[in-house]
Amino acid sequence: MKKNINFLKYSLQSLTSKTFVLAVMLLLSLPTLSHAATYMYVNNMNSLQTIEADNSTMAMLRASNIAFHSGVILLSSPYQVGMDTSLFRTMINNLSVDTNNTSAVVKWDTTINTSASIYYSTNPLVLTEATNGSSINISGAKLIANSDLRTSHFVNLTELQQNSTYYYVIDVKDGFGNESITWPSSFKTK
Predict the structure, then answer these.
(1) Less packed terminus of the chain by CB within 10 Å, N or C?
(2) DSSP character for 123?
(3) What's the mean per-residue pLDDT of the chain?
(4) Higher pLDDT, 136 or 78
C-alpha cells in the first residue's frame, strides 16, 4: 500500500501544473462515477418510486417506506443494451369465452411466452396464498391449455351442464416460473 501511495506522489509531482489540475479533477470526480442501476418499487402510499443502487439488495435496503409486499424491479442498467422483458410479469389480455349448451371455448393472449391452465367449477373458486415456494392454490377442476411456452392460448371445455354458471381462473407461468392469474370470472352455458 505504501509503495502505491509513494508512486502516486511521485507521479503527481512529475506532472505539469495543467495536467496536475486535470488529474485532480478526474480523481475528485471518481466517487461520482458509478455502475448504479435504476430500480422501481411501490412505497407505503402505493405510489411508484425509483432508486439508484449497485444491485437489487442495496436497492431494497435503501428504498424508503417500501410497501410490505413490494420488491424492486430493474428499470435500467449501465450494462444493459435493451430492456429485458423477462423481468416483468406477463399480462393476460384479449380474454373471450364462446359458449353453447354443453361446452365453452376460452381464448386469451399473454404479453410474453407462457404455459397456461384454466381452473373452473360450478361453485365459486377459492384461491389461497402460496406457501413455502408452492404455487397458488385454486379450487376447481384444472385443465392444462398448453405446457409449451406461447403467447396465444385457448382451451375447449366440454361436458358442461346446460344453462349453468361456471366460475373460472386463468393461470399462466413464464419460462422463469413467474406466475400470473386472472381475477375469478364467470360464464353461463346456453
Answers:
(1) N
(2) S
(3) 74
(4) 136
